[in-house]
Amino acid sequence: MRRLILINRKGGVGKTTSAVNISAALALLGKRVLLVDTDTQAHATLSLGVTSPEFTLLEVLLDGARGAPLQVRENLFLVPSSSRLSDFEVEAVKKPRKMIALRHFLDAVAEEFDFAVLDAPPSLGVIVLSGLLAAEEAIVPMPPHFLALKGLAETKALIDKVSRKNPALRLAWILPTFFNPQLRHTREVMQEIEKVFGRERILPPIKNSVRLTEAPALSQTIFEYAPRSPLAEAYMRVANIILEGGAS
Ligand SMILES: Nc1ncnc2c1ncn2[C@@H]1O[C@H](COP(=O)(O)OP(=O)(O)OP(=O)(O)O)[C@@H](O)[C@H]1O
Ligand SMILES: [Mg+2]
Hints:
alpha/beta, binds adenosine-5'-triphosphate
């Protein structure tokens, strides 16, 4: 099972939107995908139409519960979140070994899935650390703005730090989001990122589009809301590249 985490310490950059749609794309490609919502905001959970789930990530992390993940689409399963997940932050401060619980859970289900996709919150707390200790390939979604470069550098520093404890962890991909190719500023920032990370680690960009806001309001993925749109095509290309990237 490959273990992806969508992470950026900056908020509102498209982590959740990308976690949901990359997971949906991989599921459509026939892979068994476990999406893990690690955000107390529970946006990935809500985006897929799941409200008031009984079994959530909190039970996994606190009690080591092995309740079955919820099947939300063909090939797509979810460990939902809820605002109660914030209880974990308090508990993990008291018992730091709880920080490895998510990793143990993924180890336990590794035979059942081809991919685990973790949606990280924007904060830098124990939940993000739990995710980074459990993951292998970090995907950093970011709008190509100069200020977002700072978020990228900080996120990279965090990944480098945690990778001393979890050597399998690496910054595998950068995913440009809210992309507007017409702007000179966009091209300049993309050149900057290419210089630092190399072109081969940059995924196809996701354009700025209100459709990505409309879809979750109807509990739909982009493949359900606008299956023939360039956006659906872009997320499918992203998923295909991630899929190929694992073979090498
Ligand atoms: N490419 C895009 N174009 C336009 N709007 C987008 C795009 N991607 C995401 N959005 C919208 O922007 C908002 C923030 O996106 P999203 O929730 O995915 O970001 P996030 O990084 O997960 O945020 P948070 O840090 O709060 O978890 C949402 O309303 C979403 O629908
Ligand atoms: Mg989010």
